[in-house]
Protein: 4Fe-4S dicluster domain-containing protein
Amino acid sequence: MALMITDECINCDVCEPECPNHAISQGAEIYEIDPNLCTECVGHFDEPQCQQVCPVDCIPLDPDMRETREQLMDKYKIIIAKA
Structure:
């Protein structure tokens, strides 16, 4: 699954620089995660880095973006191939 940022986000700016896939950006009101770029840090780290640094715990799994670890790894490989 990709991650998502809920409206509990306080725009503290700590998650965006932690994302190795550059999936996090400032939205109209709060930060947003591009599900096409989010691999939950699979391929980079053991844990999603944005979740690790979020002070308000507002980055859960997106129930609308169900992906297996294998699918996340495939997405990671595509992303790094484009870099």
